[in-house]
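Example with several molecule types.
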Amino acid sequence: MLLTVLLLLPGCRCNESPGVAVRQTLPHYAEFDGLVAASWRGKVDLARTAGRDLTEGAPTEWEGGQDAAAKVGAALGFLQMAESTDEVADAVAAASLGCGKCHMAAGVGSPAPPPPWTHEHAAEHVVYGLVWTAPLGPPPGGEPPLDALAQAWNEPVVLDSASQVDERSIRAGRVIATCAECHQKR
Ligand code: HEC
Ligand code: HEC
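Resulting C-alpha coordinates for the full complex:
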Protein backbone atom coordinates (compact mmCIF):
# COMPACT_ATOMS: atom_id res chain seq x y z
CA MET A 1 0.00 0.00 0.00
CA LEU A 2 2.85 2.39 0.84
CA LEU A 3 4.33 1.75 -2.60
CA THR A 4 1.01 2.54 -4.28
CA VAL A 5 0.75 5.82 -2.37
CA LEU A 6 4.28 6.78 -3.40
CA LEU A 7 3.51 5.97 -7.02
CA LEU A 8 0.48 8.21 -6.89
CA LEU A 9 2.41 11.23 -5.60
CA PRO A 10 3.74 12.62 -8.92
CA GLY A 11 0.21 13.02 -10.23
CA CYS A 12 -1.44 14.21 -7.04
CA ARG A 13 -3.02 17.53 -6.33
CA CYS A 14 -1.00 17.88 -3.20
CA ASN A 15 -3.59 19.60 -1.04
CA GLU A 16 -5.56 16.34 -1.27
CA SER A 17 -4.76 13.12 0.53
CA PRO A 18 -3.29 10.60 -1.95
CA GLY A 19 -5.19 7.90 -0.05
CA VAL A 20 -8.44 9.26 -1.47
CA ALA A 21 -7.22 8.69 -5.04
CA VAL A 22 -6.37 5.07 -4.22
CA ARG A 23 -9.84 4.39 -2.90
CA GLN A 24 -11.44 6.00 -5.93
CA THR A 25 -9.43 3.81 -8.31
CA LEU A 26 -10.14 0.45 -6.68
CA PRO A 27 -11.93 -1.76 -7.30
CA HIS A 28 -12.28 -1.32 -11.03
CA TYR A 29 -13.51 -3.68 -13.72
CA ALA A 30 -14.09 -6.10 -10.85
CA GLU A 31 -15.82 -8.71 -13.04
CA PHE A 32 -13.18 -8.80 -15.75
CA ASP A 33 -12.26 -12.42 -14.92
CA GLY A 34 -15.86 -13.42 -15.58
CA LEU A 35 -15.70 -11.77 -18.98
CA VAL A 36 -12.48 -13.62 -19.80
CA ALA A 37 -14.11 -16.93 -18.84
CA ALA A 38 -17.18 -16.18 -20.98
CA SER A 39 -14.91 -15.34 -23.92
CA TRP A 40 -12.93 -18.58 -23.97
CA ARG A 41 -16.05 -20.64 -23.30
CA GLY A 42 -17.57 -19.02 -26.40
CA LYS A 43 -20.56 -17.55 -24.56
CA VAL A 44 -21.23 -14.52 -26.74
CA ASP A 45 -24.41 -13.30 -25.01
CA LEU A 46 -22.91 -13.66 -21.55
CA ALA A 47 -19.76 -11.81 -22.67
CA ARG A 48 -21.85 -8.96 -24.05
CA THR A 49 -23.73 -8.59 -20.77
CA ALA A 50 -20.50 -8.78 -18.78
CA GLY A 51 -18.95 -6.09 -20.98
CA ARG A 52 -21.92 -3.79 -20.50
CA ASP A 53 -21.77 -4.14 -16.72
CA LEU A 54 -18.01 -3.57 -16.72
CA THR A 55 -18.23 -0.13 -18.31
CA GLU A 56 -19.71 1.12 -15.06
CA GLY A 57 -16.58 0.10 -13.14
CA ALA A 58 -14.01 2.21 -14.98
CA PRO A 59 -11.27 3.89 -12.87
CA THR A 60 -12.15 7.45 -13.89
CA GLU A 61 -10.27 9.17 -11.09
CA TRP A 62 -6.79 8.15 -12.16
CA GLU A 63 -5.09 11.24 -13.55
CA GLY A 64 -3.26 10.67 -16.80
CA GLY A 65 -5.05 7.38 -17.40
CA GLN A 66 -8.00 8.75 -19.37
CA ASP A 67 -6.57 7.66 -22.71
CA ALA A 68 -6.04 4.09 -21.53
CA ALA A 69 -9.48 4.02 -19.87
CA ALA A 70 -10.95 5.22 -23.17
CA LYS A 71 -9.25 2.33 -24.96
CA VAL A 72 -10.81 -0.13 -22.53
CA GLY A 73 -14.18 1.61 -22.97
CA ALA A 74 -13.96 1.45 -26.77
CA ALA A 75 -13.15 -2.27 -26.66
CA LEU A 76 -16.08 -2.92 -24.30
CA GLY A 77 -18.30 -0.88 -26.62
CA PHE A 78 -17.24 -3.01 -29.57
CA LEU A 79 -17.90 -6.09 -27.45
CA GLN A 80 -21.52 -5.09 -26.99
CA MET A 81 -22.01 -5.39 -30.75
CA ALA A 82 -19.99 -8.60 -31.10
CA GLU A 83 -21.82 -11.45 -32.80
CA SER A 84 -19.15 -14.13 -33.03
CA THR A 85 -16.73 -15.77 -30.63
CA ASP A 86 -13.87 -14.28 -32.70
CA GLU A 87 -15.18 -10.75 -32.18
CA VAL A 88 -15.61 -11.35 -28.46
CA ALA A 89 -12.05 -12.68 -28.23
CA ASP A 90 -10.66 -9.66 -30.11
CA ALA A 91 -12.58 -7.27 -27.86
CA VAL A 92 -11.30 -8.92 -24.67
CA ALA A 93 -7.73 -8.76 -25.96
CA ALA A 94 -8.09 -5.10 -26.98
CA ALA A 95 -9.58 -4.23 -23.56
CA SER A 96 -6.70 -6.02 -21.83
CA LEU A 97 -4.24 -3.96 -23.83
CA GLY A 98 -5.93 -0.79 -22.52
CA CYS A 99 -5.64 -2.05 -18.93
CA GLY A 100 -1.94 -2.65 -19.54
CA LYS A 101 -1.34 0.83 -20.90
CA CYS A 102 -2.63 2.44 -17.72
CA HIS A 103 -0.90 0.01 -15.36
CA MET A 104 2.38 0.58 -17.22
CA ALA A 105 1.98 4.38 -17.10
CA ALA A 106 1.04 4.26 -13.41
CA GLY A 107 3.90 1.90 -12.59
CA VAL A 108 1.47 -0.62 -11.10
CA GLY A 109 2.54 -4.25 -10.93
CA SER A 110 0.36 -7.33 -10.63
CA PRO A 111 -0.59 -8.53 -7.15
CA ALA A 112 -0.29 -12.16 -8.35
CA PRO A 113 2.08 -14.31 -10.47
CA PRO A 114 1.03 -15.20 -14.04
CA PRO A 115 -1.24 -18.21 -14.57
CA PRO A 116 0.68 -21.06 -16.27
CA TRP A 117 0.83 -21.48 -20.05
CA THR A 118 -1.20 -24.71 -19.95
CA HIS A 119 -4.34 -25.82 -21.78
CA GLU A 120 -6.65 -24.91 -18.89
CA HIS A 121 -5.05 -21.56 -18.07
CA ALA A 122 -3.89 -20.33 -21.48
CA ALA A 123 -6.64 -17.72 -21.86
CA GLU A 124 -5.88 -16.24 -18.44
CA HIS A 125 -2.17 -16.40 -19.25
CA VAL A 126 -2.42 -14.32 -22.42
CA VAL A 127 -4.79 -11.82 -20.79
CA TYR A 128 -2.40 -11.48 -17.86
CA GLY A 129 0.43 -10.74 -20.31
CA LEU A 130 -1.53 -7.80 -21.71
CA VAL A 131 -3.06 -6.46 -18.48
CA TRP A 132 0.33 -6.44 -16.73
CA THR A 133 2.60 -5.97 -19.76
CA ALA A 134 4.30 -9.23 -18.76
CA PRO A 135 6.45 -11.30 -21.13
CA LEU A 136 4.21 -13.14 -23.58
CA GLY A 137 5.51 -15.77 -25.99
CA PRO A 138 4.03 -18.67 -27.93
CA PRO A 139 2.52 -21.59 -26.02
CA PRO A 140 4.80 -24.57 -25.43
CA GLY A 141 2.99 -26.63 -28.07
CA GLY A 142 3.08 -30.42 -27.95
CA GLU A 143 -0.01 -32.41 -27.12
CA PRO A 144 -3.51 -31.36 -28.20
CA PRO A 145 -4.96 -28.84 -27.70
CA LEU A 146 -1.72 -26.91 -27.01
CA ASP A 147 -0.65 -27.62 -30.59
CA ALA A 148 -3.81 -25.90 -31.88
CA LEU A 149 -3.14 -22.91 -29.62
CA ALA A 150 0.47 -22.75 -30.82
CA GLN A 151 -0.68 -22.83 -34.44
CA ALA A 152 -3.14 -19.99 -33.85
CA TRP A 153 -0.45 -17.97 -32.08
CA ASN A 154 2.18 -18.52 -34.77
CA GLU A 155 0.15 -17.42 -37.82
CA PRO A 156 1.76 -14.25 -39.22
CA VAL A 157 0.25 -10.93 -38.11
CA VAL A 158 -0.30 -8.13 -40.61
CA LEU A 159 -0.81 -4.72 -38.99
CA ASP A 160 -1.70 -1.51 -40.78
CA SER A 161 -0.44 1.78 -39.43
CA ALA A 162 -3.91 2.89 -38.28
CA SER A 163 -4.31 -0.19 -36.10
CA GLN A 164 -5.31 0.46 -32.50
CA VAL A 165 -4.00 -2.89 -31.31
CA ASP A 166 -0.58 -4.50 -31.25
CA GLU A 167 0.75 -7.84 -32.37
CA ARG A 168 0.55 -9.41 -28.94
CA SER A 169 -3.11 -8.57 -28.51
CA ILE A 170 -3.94 -10.02 -31.94
CA ARG A 171 -2.19 -13.26 -31.01
CA ALA A 172 -3.88 -13.31 -27.59
CA GLY A 173 -7.28 -12.83 -29.27
CA ARG A 174 -6.58 -15.78 -31.56
CA VAL A 175 -5.70 -18.03 -28.63
CA ILE A 176 -8.98 -17.16 -26.88
CA ALA A 177 -10.94 -17.68 -30.12
CA THR A 178 -9.33 -21.11 -30.49
CA CYS A 179 -10.50 -22.14 -27.00
CA ALA A 180 -14.01 -21.10 -27.99
CA GLU A 181 -13.96 -23.28 -31.12
CA CYS A 182 -13.90 -26.35 -28.87
CA HIS A 183 -15.57 -25.08 -25.74
CA GLN A 184 -18.57 -23.34 -27.25
CA LYS A 185 -20.07 -26.77 -27.96
CA ARG A 186 -19.59 -27.99 -24.38
C1 HEC B 1 -6.93 4.47 -16.02
C2 HEC B 1 -6.00 3.59 -15.39
C3 HEC B 1 -6.31 2.14 -15.25
C4 HEC B 1 -6.96 1.33 -16.13
C5 HEC B 1 -7.51 1.66 -17.51
C6 HEC B 1 -7.00 0.02 -15.51
N1 HEC B 1 -6.39 0.04 -14.29
FE1 HEC B 1 -6.18 -1.50 -13.01
N2 HEC B 1 -5.12 -0.35 -11.72
C7 HEC B 1 -4.86 1.00 -11.90
C8 HEC B 1 -4.12 1.50 -10.76
C9 HEC B 1 -3.64 2.94 -10.57
C10 HEC B 1 -3.93 0.41 -9.89
C11 HEC B 1 -3.19 0.40 -8.54
C12 HEC B 1 -4.14 0.46 -7.39
C13 HEC B 1 -4.81 1.79 -7.27
O1 HEC B 1 -4.12 2.81 -7.21
O2 HEC B 1 -6.04 1.82 -7.21
C14 HEC B 1 -4.58 -0.74 -10.53
C15 HEC B 1 -4.65 -2.00 -9.97
C16 HEC B 1 -5.31 -3.08 -10.54
C17 HEC B 1 -5.43 -4.39 -9.94
C18 HEC B 1 -4.78 -4.82 -8.63
C19 HEC B 1 -5.69 -4.68 -7.50
C20 HEC B 1 -5.04 -5.16 -6.24
O3 HEC B 1 -5.69 -5.91 -5.52
O4 HEC B 1 -3.87 -4.77 -5.98
C21 HEC B 1 -6.16 -5.18 -10.79
C22 HEC B 1 -6.54 -6.63 -10.61
C23 HEC B 1 -6.50 -4.34 -11.94
N3 HEC B 1 -5.97 -3.08 -11.75
C24 HEC B 1 -7.22 -4.79 -13.01
C25 HEC B 1 -7.50 -4.03 -14.14
C26 HEC B 1 -8.13 -4.54 -15.34
C27 HEC B 1 -8.57 -5.98 -15.55
C28 HEC B 1 -8.24 -3.49 -16.20
C29 HEC B 1 -8.83 -3.46 -17.59
C30 HEC B 1 -10.11 -4.12 -17.83
C31 HEC B 1 -7.66 -2.32 -15.53
N4 HEC B 1 -7.23 -2.69 -14.29
C32 HEC B 1 -7.59 -1.08 -16.10
C33 HEC B 1 -5.23 1.77 -12.96
C34 HEC B 1 -5.94 1.33 -14.09
C1 HEC C 1 -9.13 -28.87 -29.58
C2 HEC C 1 -10.17 -28.62 -28.60
C3 HEC C 1 -9.86 -27.75 -27.39
C4 HEC C 1 -9.27 -26.51 -27.37
C5 HEC C 1 -8.71 -25.72 -28.54
C6 HEC C 1 -9.28 -26.09 -25.98
N1 HEC C 1 -9.85 -27.04 -25.19
FE1 HEC C 1 -10.12 -26.93 -23.17
N2 HEC C 1 -10.88 -28.83 -23.16
C7 HEC C 1 -11.05 -29.61 -24.29
C8 HEC C 1 -11.49 -30.94 -23.86
C9 HEC C 1 -11.81 -32.11 -24.79
C10 HEC C 1 -11.57 -30.90 -22.44
C11 HEC C 1 -11.92 -32.05 -21.48
C12 HEC C 1 -13.37 -32.39 -21.52
C13 HEC C 1 -14.21 -31.44 -20.75
O1 HEC C 1 -14.05 -31.35 -19.51
O2 HEC C 1 -15.04 -30.73 -21.34
C14 HEC C 1 -11.19 -29.56 -22.04
C15 HEC C 1 -11.16 -29.12 -20.73
C16 HEC C 1 -10.85 -27.83 -20.33
C17 HEC C 1 -10.95 -27.32 -18.97
C18 HEC C 1 -11.42 -28.13 -17.74
C19 HEC C 1 -12.89 -28.38 -17.81
C20 HEC C 1 -13.73 -27.11 -17.79
O3 HEC C 1 -14.57 -26.96 -18.71
O4 HEC C 1 -13.53 -26.24 -16.93
C21 HEC C 1 -10.60 -26.01 -19.02
C22 HEC C 1 -10.54 -25.03 -17.85
C23 HEC C 1 -10.23 -25.71 -20.40
N3 HEC C 1 -10.41 -26.84 -21.15
C24 HEC C 1 -9.80 -24.47 -20.83
C25 HEC C 1 -9.41 -24.19 -22.14
C26 HEC C 1 -8.88 -22.91 -22.55
C27 HEC C 1 -8.70 -21.70 -21.66
C28 HEC C 1 -8.58 -23.03 -23.87
C29 HEC C 1 -7.91 -22.02 -24.77
C30 HEC C 1 -6.71 -21.40 -24.28
C31 HEC C 1 -8.95 -24.37 -24.27
N4 HEC C 1 -9.46 -25.04 -23.20
C32 HEC C 1 -8.81 -24.86 -25.56
C33 HEC C 1 -10.84 -29.24 -25.59
C34 HEC C 1 -10.22 -28.08 -26.01
